[in-house]
Amino acid sequence: MRILVTGCAGYIGGTFTFEALKRGFKVIGIDSFINGKKNNIKFFLENYRESFKFIEEDLSDYKAEKLKKELDSIKIDVAVHCAGLKSVDESEKEPLLYWKNNVDSTINLLNILSNSNVRKVIFSSSATVYGDSDIHPILEDFGIEPVSTYGSTKVAIEQMLKDSSRSKKFDVVSLRYFNPVGSHKEMKVYESPYSMPNNLMPRIIRVALKLDQKLQIYGTDYDTRDGTGERDYIHIDDLVEGHFKAVEYIKDFKGYEVFNLGTGTSITVKEIISCFEEVNGIKISHEYADRRPGDIAKCYADPSKANNLLGWSAQKNLEDMCRDAWKAIKNNLNDAK
Ligand code: UD1
To answer: Which DSSP category does 138 fall into?
Structure first.
């Protein structure tokens, strides 16, 4: 089976690509390196010469000549579309950049796939589409109310995919990720903490590495267990496993389907810091700060649809996530920068 992976140099696309290669799939990977790591591609090319092919291209460029040429000569069974910018803050400052990079590139990709008769698409969506839900845990059929440009682009792409599936050109599974953290079990592909991340785990890692003196906890007066934000953190290995279940599912599936990929458990900022400290024996200095604009109090999944239809459920716990996130950085101190 041959899989096209967009964003294959990034944290999630890269981890999926590595695991797909390990499982014997053939992978055509595409990345523009706007955020992805060249080292990931070097590693795949060196270790999977026969089964990995890389195309460096920006999918928002309508020419996309390299991809078109590649698809002229080979048959793709499934496209796993992970490419996309994902910073809420940046999306508020540069909305058109997000519409171009996330939405334009998907229109382009779908046109190219359609011309090459690729009809199976798995899309990396996000729990961000639910916005600030009053009810938890969150089910797939809850209201869609994105509160950022980043969220709007995910909603737009989902809608585009749903419309395209109605035209019978594509069968699509959208996976709504909750908060992916941790590192793949072999510690080769991981989330980089070096390029000023916004997310909590890489920020904790920066303090552990002494790159930052203190972690700022954004908001201590939320209506949550301890006043700090509650999220559904999910180990990257579990998230990636969800993609393989989706690859299986989509083989015989026709239409459009959406699944939450989360654990169903909520964890506060204070709880994740304590867990990280305990599991890794490192003190994470922190201070209390104002709420981050655009943040919500709570967000966690009801994953029962994925449990029932995909036969998938998250297996790893918060200790695994904290341990593996740090271990990957410790193991790769030399080439991470
Ligand atoms: C963020 C995005 C979300 C996106 C996801 C991608 C925002 C508002 N939301 O989700 O749309 O899909 O990343 O991974 O950016 N926190 C701190 N200190 C920090 C960093 C975070 O206290 O230095 C807190 C936040 O307030 C939040 C929790 O940690 O309560 C998780 O934050 P983060 O990892 O950024 O994820 P989300 O905000 O859930």
So the answer is: B
* Closest-lying ligand 1 atom to the alpha carbon of residue 148: 11
Q: What is the largest CA-CA distance in the chain?
A: 57
Kindly give the distance from the C-alpha atom of residue 87 to the centroid of ligand 1, in angstroms, as a whole number.
9
Distance 152 CA to ligand 1 centre (A): 17
Ligand 1 atom having least distance to the Cα of 215: 23
Instruction: Calculate Rg over the CA atoms of the chain.
Output: 19
62 is catalytic: no
Other C-beta atoms closer than 10 Å to the C-beta of 68 total 14
**H-only helix segments in the chain:** 11-22, 38-47, 65-73, 88-93, 95-98, 105-115, 149-166, 200-208, 236-251, 269-280, 304-305, 318-331, 333-336
Q: Which of 48, 150, 222, 300 is labelled catalytic?
A: 150
Q: Which residues have C-beta atoms less than 6 Å from ligand 1?
A: 86, 88, 126, 128, 150, 179, 198-200, 203, 215-219, 229, 231, 269, 292, 294-295, 299
The model carries a pTM of 0.97
Q: Tens-of-pLDDT digits for all 337 residues of the chain?
A: 999 999 999 999 999 999 999 999 999 999 999 999 999 999 999 999 999 999 999 999 999 999 999 999 999 999 999 999 999 999 999 999 999 999 999 999 999 999 999 999 999 999 999 999 999 999 999 999 999 999 999 999 999 999 999 998 999 999 999 999 999 999 999 999 998 899 999 999 999 999 999 999 999 999 999 999 999 999 999 999 999 999 999 999 999 999 999 999 999 999 999 999 999 999 999 999 999 988 999 999 999 999 999 999 999 999 999 999 999 999 998 765 5
